[in-house]
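Run log, item B.
One chain of 661 residues. Sequence copied directly from the ordering sheet:
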Amino acid sequence: MSVSRTERLLNLLIALLNTRYGLRRSELREKIYHDTSGNDVAFGRMFERDKNDLRAMGFEVETLTDLGWSEDDPATTRYRIGKEASRLPDVQLGPDEWTVLLLASRLWERAALGTAAQSALRKLQASGRLADVELPAGVQPRIKPAGQAFDDIVAAMHARHPVSFTYLAGSTGKEEERAVEPWGLGSRFGQWYLVGYDRARTAPRYFRLSRLTSAVTTLARDHYEPPAGFNIREELGRLPEMPLRTAVVDVRQGRLLALRHRALDDARQRGAGAPADGFDRLLLEYRAPEVLAEELASYGPDALAVEPADLAEAVRRRLRAAASFSDSPVPDYAFQHARARTARKGTSEDQLKRMLQLVPFLVHNQGLHIQDVAGHFGVSREELEADLRILICSGLPEGYPDDLLDIQWEDDHVFISQDLDLNRPVRFTVAEACALLTGLETLNGLPDLPGGGALESVTLKLLAAAGEEGLRAASIAGPRIAPADAATHATVRRAIEAGSQLHLTYLSPQRDAVTERDVDPLRLYSLDNTWYFEAWCHLVDGLRNFRLDRVQDVHPSGLAATRHGTPDDGVPAKLFTANDDDTTVTVQLTRQGRGLADDYYAERTAELPGGGLVADIRFGNTAWLPMFVAQHGGSARILAPAGLADAAREWLAASLDRYGG
């Protein structure tokens, strides 16, 4: 949307909110659109698009007709927006409820639902001041959605459009094109699943997102209606857990300690034959072949899946895809700007949504410094002033000066004296309701959740406030976030709260070694149910992140933690910490893998046709980059430096040779 369209939509909204009997299309065309083109068809399309945009933002545009006339007659049809129907009901929250709500809003590590959660939170804050709350010391649970496919399916599901994609069928091992009406997305057994109606098979089906082998395409011209009362968590609750299977894997002697740590025993003890010279034959338990295949592919020539055949083929398929992508021609690209993590180019629609939150926020927070207002909305002062300039030029059609929004900020403190009934936040959109309510449900597994019954009470309040949109939150279910090792989690958390040092024995897969370290823990955070803690490591004299499930032993050292400054206040915590001597690597990502640019904090990016990206990413240890390429199986490759790209290709070739080419 252009800036002029933003202004038009804002003025259309104000006009429809401030009419009791409704305005005819001809009146709107003259006073809001100033359209004298005479092209009725073009204007009709524009007006319908604008109405749909307002509905997407939470405003229900009512259509009124004179008695005895139909809606097909523009001369007798009027439009308006009911004020109360479009407004978010007042939600009064106590400090404990705000604490739980803040944790829920920050759960989404990235993706569209993260933006929706922050938007919903600002709407709740717009009707009053945020209570003084203190989040649990150093605890940041997060959900990590399954890449771009997650965002694409969520957007299609909320708009009720079918989707299509290529899917690797578990029953046949073949890739098949699927057209699906998405009913719900949820996490179970550590996997994200789509549940929907498969049009080709004319029946409901489950689809594991890790088996999607193409980007998701939205069939935007088509619509569907999901079954009434559908609940994704209940649906996935009926899904039986995959059977426990045993794999035979050859591992190079002296390598892959993390994999050996999980092995049942030496496979030769069970008559599984002998491996090649220099290798040990191990037995590993697993449930999902794709998950183990992703791990084994990342080990390259140091590991070989021997049995079963479908596991070996899954590894081979990943390696072939990675090798094929690495050998493909280098695309033309040009870096245009530095990239902030999770930054997304703002649209005029984003600006309008922000302005509709800005007006009620200013009404209830008169006199704030303009820089504080900009910080609250996560924009620069220049962007905020652009919003304010549009607002002060907006109002009732052909109205008097008193019919315009009146905002002053000349002394750097912002005041609003005329709000034109925009003084209440707009009701939640479906995405906003889903983001908050799914986040609250996910928090059920968080240890030592503050506030006792605050989680239940704030959930009930938000369900009441969200109305029908809240009921549609049942289409998304987050993962369980309880840590696997509650004792280790509790030890680290107590050390953070007490400011004490820890001594730990840690298994490092990158170093392929077990080390002992003294660390000063700073904060705990999670990606789904995988928990990490950020700490100052005295062994390397720097910040490091440690996975709790790789901690073999941890206990207080008896010393107080050294002060190294507080951790970065940004949320979420960074899984990878950049250093000045890191190597900048240029990586090409497909549309499926473009989320890796956010995961690894790309410094700049270049868009490619088809939705792919070229990204500059800094890596402290480049020796593991071939593992990175293999793990992502055709979604990522190294472009530069040339030596690293050549090393990755040679490593992939050697890995494929282990599987017979």
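Observations after the first pass:
- Confidence is low (pLDDT under 50) at residues 340-345.
- The longest helix spans residues 309-327.
Flagged for discussion on Thursday.
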